[in-house]
Amino acid sequence: MQETTANRVAANATSSFTEHLQRERPDLMPFGHMPFNQLPAAGQAAAPLQAPHGTTIVAMSYAGGVLMAGDRRATMGNVIASRHIEKVFPADQYSVLGIAGTAGIALDITRLFQVELEHYEKIEGTLLSLDGKANRLGAMVRGNLPMAMQGLAVVPLFAGFDRPAGFGRLFSYDVTGGRYEEQEHHAVGSGSMFARGALKKLWRPGLSEQDAVAVAVEALYDAADDDSATGGPDPVRQLWPVVYVVNRTGAVRVPDRDLAAVAGRIIESRAVAQREA
């Protein structure tokens, strides 16, 4: 009996948009397609392409949820490629994603992840669990491994509100797609070492949402002080970090006017203290 179109579609149906895309249109995937047996041998890796890279992302828990913030600078070698790039995005209603690394691939992975979660919700009629979202993202990062071995790595941070558990959770990854649940706070990107140092001093259990925003902005300010690839708050251009808070009501972006006020207080306090570092 000749197979009908409906039967063929039903047989190939999947709740994963990524799997569907890999099967039907692999050319549209954001990942590299070079087979592993064609990758350069150890010690013979090709020189990395000159492509815009984004840094730095910080995330932390606070009383009632999680927060994620990213600076606005992208660099290409020693050149500032952009001062306006956004690196933190809502993945769905209850989770956010921040990506450091090769900007173009990172943005493609972000868009694909957003569609992946939306597709799952439409097919299954329910939201994917937070652990399921974190696992799906890890698989996408692992799919980019051939490009990462060419110097085009993408390293995300993922955070969301676990509605059944009633609290926010935070996940970090490595370039192989390894997933690690972080406690309290974390940072990725070239300025992460300096941001983590600031977070260790400034973060405390039970932070209010307002205080958590201030801690995130100051951590990015410290990272920008010592890392040339990280851009700090820019009052001249009116450029502020991208900050999202996620709690039981969903993911919300913090308005620029609030970030301007927070950054202003940080700059003023350091000026009054006459701090050089």
Task: Tell me what you see in this structure.
Pathway: Protein degradation; proteasomal Pup-dependent pathway. It is found in: Cytoplasm. It catalyses: Cleavage of peptide bonds with very broad specificity. This is Proteasome subunit beta. Strand 9 and strand 10 form a beta hairpin. The radius of gyration is 20 Å and the shape is globular. Strands 1, 4, 5, 6, 7, 8, 9 and 10 form an 8-stranded antiparallel sheet that branches. The protein has a 5-stranded antiparallel sheet with strand order 11-2-3-12-13, covered by helices on one side. With 277 residues, it is α+β, with helices and mostly antiparallel strands. Helix 6 packs antiparallel against helix 7 and helix 7 packs across helix 8. It contains 8 helices and 13 strands. The chain is 37% helix and 25% strand.
Layout: helices, strands, pairs:
Blueprint: H1 5-11, H2 17-24, E1 53-54, E2 57-62, E3 65-70, E4 74-76, E5 79-82, E6 88-92, E7 95-102, H3 103-124, H4 130-143, H5 145-148, E8 154-162, E9 167-173, E10 179-182, E11 185-188, H6 192-202, H7 209-226, E12 242-247, E13 250-253, H8 256-273
Antiparallel strand pairs: 1-4, 1-7, 2-3, 2-11, 3-12, 4-5, 6-7, 7-8, 8-9, 9-10, 12-13
Protein name: Proteasome subunit beta
InterPro entries: Ntn_hydrolases_N, Proteasome_sua/b, Proteasome_suB-type, PSB_actinobac
Keywords: Autocatalytic cleavage, Cytoplasm, Hydrolase, Protease, Proteasome, Threonine protease, Zymogen
